[in-house]
Structure formats: structure tokens, C-alpha cells
């Protein structure tokens, strides 16, 4: 089993964030939905993160955390819990 470093996890999530939001994603401290995210882009983002990191990423997490740093932190914890 290959395990990701925190840097790899961050990169994977950032890549999915930018893919889902496009140019608006430059403000990665902002709220996903305030940056132009829609329900469709939220599902796209969630699906990319889940498949790349092999973690559970419920859509409610995006509604609760909203900003990229908080999402990275939560997903990193989920990854460590699952893959350690």
C-alpha cells in the first residue's frame, strides 16, 4: 500500500479544488460556494478527492468546512485514520 505524505494529500485536494472552481479558486481561503461552487462542482470536487485518496468525503463536510485549509485538515485526518 502506498501512503501519501501530508504534502501529497494537500496537493491532491488543491488540484481537485482548482478543477472544480476554475479561476475563482485563486482565493483558496474563501468559501467554496461563495467562490462560485455549485452543487454539481461540489460533487465533482468530492468525487475527485474520494477516488484519489480513497477516503470517505461526505458532501456535508464541504457544507460544514467550506474553506480549503479546513477541508485539507479534515481530509488529512481521515486519510491518516484510514491508512495508518
Automatic annotation (TrEMBL):
Record-linked InterPro entries: ACP-like_sf, PP-bd_ACP
Pfam families on file: PP-binding
Record-annotated Carrier domain positions: 4-79
Recorded superkingdom: Bacteria
Name the UniProt record assigns to this protein: Phosphopantetheine-binding protein
Originating species: Streptomyces muensis
